[in-house]
Amino acid sequence: MKRLLGCLLLALGLPAAALQITDDRGVLVTLAQPPQRIVSLLPSLSETVCELGRCQHIVGVDRYSNFPASLQKLPQLGGGLDPNIELIVALKPDVVLMAASSRAGDRLEALGLKVVALEPKSHKDVQRVTFKLGQLLAVPDTARIWRAIDAGVSAAAQALPASVRGVKVYFEVNPGPYAASESSFIGETLTRLGVQNIVPAGLGPFPKLNPEYIVRANPDLIMIGQRSAEGLMSRPGWQGIRALREQRVCIFPTEEANVLVRPGPRMAEAARLMARCLESKAPKTVSGTRP
Q1: Distance CA 175, CA 123 (A)
Q2: pTM of this prediction?
Q3: Which of 40, 54, 149, 289, by CA, is between 20 and 30 Å from 85?
Q4: Which is nearest to 80 in space by CA: 57, 58, 105?
Q5: Structural domains of the chain sorted by starting position, each given as residue range(s) with its CATH number in brackets
Q6: What is the pLDDT of residues 58-83, one digit of tens each?
Q7: How far is CA 136 from the centre of its chain?
Q8: Which of 15, 16, 65, 14 is nearest to 38 (CA)?
Q9: How many angstroms separate the CA atoms of 30 and 249, rounded?
Q10: 115 phi, psi to nearest 5 deg
């Protein structure tokens, strides 16, 4: 069977050790060998490559890929949605990793570069993308990474007191406001922590909300990054939101906010940050009801 497969690959002009991976666009990408020069244009993918032990093969990143610290020494190639094509080509990468939502993939492929588009948005996606990157980079036992994430999230949930269960939480990802719904990886972590997300899954993972929606939902607690928190109290009608009225707001500094909004290896750390917020700021509940 192996001999037959080898003959078939040779007939197609492919080496017997060729790697093939289907990305999130449904595109089958073939490489002759594991890539030695990688450009990564999505922070979560950059972090996953490093967690897989292949950080040394990354030769350029987007402006937001800043963890681990070694990535900050690499050439910055713009944003994931507006990368500097000329700089990327000049680096001569074997593969470019990017979000499926980026429109730069077609341009890069037209210039002869290999593009793998992967975009995790849920826990299941993170597990799948980690496995696919493991395939691409020829790394065995990628399941260990997800096992560590899953165990870390479970441990964070188990450490929380029962008094925070059922607390209504609003998690703002970006001004707009854009929120993390129940179907996002952030929302799934909140669910595992036992709290109630005010943004339902039906609105999509990261919907842009009418600010009045949040006022009506009246969350008990707000989680938000430092960059987005400025002027929170001055938003029309928000003074009456219980979380603001009772000062139950967790404002995460930029470094922690980065951990929270990246679906990758640091999701267990993100769960611990959320749990710490809940333990310190959530109103106490009795038998699932709030005073």
Answers
A1: 24
A2: 0.89
A3: 54
A4: 105
A5: 21-140 (3.40.50.1980), 162-281 (3.40.50.1980)
A6: 999 999 999 999 999 999 999 988 89
A7: 19
A8: 65
A9: 48
A10: -125, 130
